């Protein structure tokens, strides 16, 4: 059986909490208003004087002249100043010229006047004056306590729901609740189900594409290689057949790369990869784009540079960046500099188009005319993020400079 508080919405809970807080504050205010500070002060002073009166009465009854402390004076009916004679028995507060406290009492039909300096009761004045700050402090502490209690009750289910979403817990808690937490939990559950169905469809598509495309591409590649070997060396069909072979091989690599991108980065197969052979392979594949161009392709890389990564995805990144540099550099040089785990690919081409943001490569971004080969800069960026690398780009009308930091950031 749920309590009434648990059945309330968050809005109602917060409202009720602050209403209770206001009730508590008003109760304090009412209590404070009922207390007259002057009456409280008079009562405290009178009680203090009355505590001293029995000693004085005893000593007077014994015929002993009472010893009075500093700041206190005792008068009888004969010695009392005229200004004190007007006061009736009881406590009186004298404000002029200096604040004093007077207690008038009668003993053996003789009236006495006990007059004391107000400085003796300074500490009592401070206590009475501190009553209002005490009320304020209690109100603040009460507000703090109610606020903490309310926030704890409100945030605990939110925190629990957030932890369940983070752990991908199924089913999510609070889905049967009628408050805002229940609405949020049901929305999370629905969104999670939609994502699960989307991922399932994507897995099915990737698996089907892999199964249906690998075999035809292998057949096309084998047939094209057969044609290349059967044609005479001086045949004008040889360049076209070789182009078919290269394009088929490129499609096979692209398919492998896309399949790897569809996997969780944590489950991506990694191994110790030598970088210079990959770069040399990409340079050899780029020679058709450099034919009849006054472009020098320079490789500055150590022989024994290795990193822990996925070879196919690393090859795709190197190849696409180098292919773009070779394709759009009309003259000058293209330099590949590998220092440790940092690779820099720079060229003297026209740079990136103004419509492309070097910081954010987006899919279907309008820009230079592409020939359809390669994965494009947006997919390159996806691969870089998938591998946990970092890529920075510097572009001007004098060329582009891509820098890859291949140290894993996650």
Describe this structure as you would to a colleague.
With 410 residues, this protein is of the alpha+beta class. It is 54% helix and 17% strand. The protein has twelve helices and eleven strands. Strand 2 and strand 3 (100-107) form a beta hairpin. The model is unreliable at 363-375 (pLDDT under 50).
Please render the helix and strand layout as text:
Blueprint: H1 4-7, H2 10-34, H3 37-61, E1 72-76, H4 82-85, E2 90-94, E3 100-107, E4 110-117, H5 122-129, H6 131-166, H7 180-230, H8 238-261, E5 271-274, H9 275-285, H10 287-290, E6 295-301, E7 306-309, H11 311-328, E8 332-339, E9 342-347, H12 376-387, E10 390-396, E11 399-405
Parallel strand pairs: 6-8
Antiparallel strand pairs: 1-4, 2-3, 3-4, 5-7, 8-9, 9-11, 10-11
């Amino acid at each position: 059986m749920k309590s009434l508080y648990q059945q309330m919405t968050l809005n109602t809970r917060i409202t009720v909490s602050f209403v209770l807080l206001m009730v508590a504050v008003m109760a304090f205010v009412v209590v404070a208003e009922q207390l007259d500070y002057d009456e409280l002060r008079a009562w405290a002073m009178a009680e203090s004087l009355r505590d001293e009166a029995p000693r004085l009465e005893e000593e007077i009854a014994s015929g002993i002249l009472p010893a009075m402390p500093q700041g206190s004076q005792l008068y009888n009916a004969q010695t009392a100043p005229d200004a004190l004679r007007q006061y009736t028995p009881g406590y009186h507060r004298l404000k002029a010229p200096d604040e004093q406290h007077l207690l008038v009492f009668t003993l053996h039909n003789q009236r006495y006047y006990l007059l004391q300096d107000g400085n003796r009761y300074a500490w009592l004045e401070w206590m009475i004056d501190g009553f209002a700050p005490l009320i304020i402090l209690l109100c603040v502490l009460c507000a703090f306590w109610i606020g903490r209690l309310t926030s704890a009750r409100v945030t605990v289910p939110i925190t629990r729901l957030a932890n369940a979403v983070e752990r991908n817990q199924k089913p999510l808690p609070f889905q049967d609740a009628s408050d805002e937490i229940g609405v949020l939990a049901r929305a999370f559950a629905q969104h999670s189900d939609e994502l699960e169905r989307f991922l399932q469809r994507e897995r099915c598509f990737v698996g089907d594409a892999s199964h249906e495309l690998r075999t035809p591409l292998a057949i096309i590649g084998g047939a094209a290689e057969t044609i290349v070997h059967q044609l005479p060396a001086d045949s004008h069909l040889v360049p076209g057949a070789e182009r078919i072979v290269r394009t088929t091989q490129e499609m096979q690599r692209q398919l492998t790369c896309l399949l790897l991108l569809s996997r969780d980065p944590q489950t991506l197969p990694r191994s110790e990869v030598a970088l210079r052979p990959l770069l040399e392979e990409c340079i050899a594949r780029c020679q058709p784009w450099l034919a009849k161009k006054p472009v020098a392709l320079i490789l500055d890389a150590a022989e024994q540079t290795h990193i822990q990564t996925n070879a196919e995805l690393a090859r795709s990144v190197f190849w696409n960046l180098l292919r773009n540099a070779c394709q759009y550099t009309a003259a000058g040089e293209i330099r590949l500099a590998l220092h440790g785990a940092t690779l820099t690919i720079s060229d003297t081409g026209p740079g990136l188009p103004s419509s492309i943001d070097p910081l954010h490569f987006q899919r279907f971004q309008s820009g230079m005319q592409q020939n359809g080969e390669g994965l494009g800069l947006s997919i390159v960026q996806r691969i870089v993020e998938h591998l946990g690398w970092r890529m920075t780009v510097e572009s001007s009308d004098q060329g582009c400079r891509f820098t890859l930091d291949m140290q894993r950031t996650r």
